[in-house]
Amino acid sequence: MYFLYDGTYPGFLTAVYEIYHFGTSTMEGLTPDRGEDCLFGEQYRVETQFLKAEKVVSAFEKKCGMEAVRWMYRAFLSDEEGKELKIFYFIREGFKTGKQIYARRKEPWIQDILAMNRKVGNEAEKFRGILRFSELEDGFLYAVIRPQCCILPILAVHFKDRFSQRSWGIYDSLRHEAAVYQNGRISMVNIENINKNINYSASEKDFRELWQNYYRHMGIEERRNPRERMSFLPKKYWAYLTEMKDPYNRQDLPLKGMEERKKNR
Question: How does pLDDT run across 127-142, given as a tens digit for each residue?
Answer without folding.
Answer: 999 999 999 999 999 9
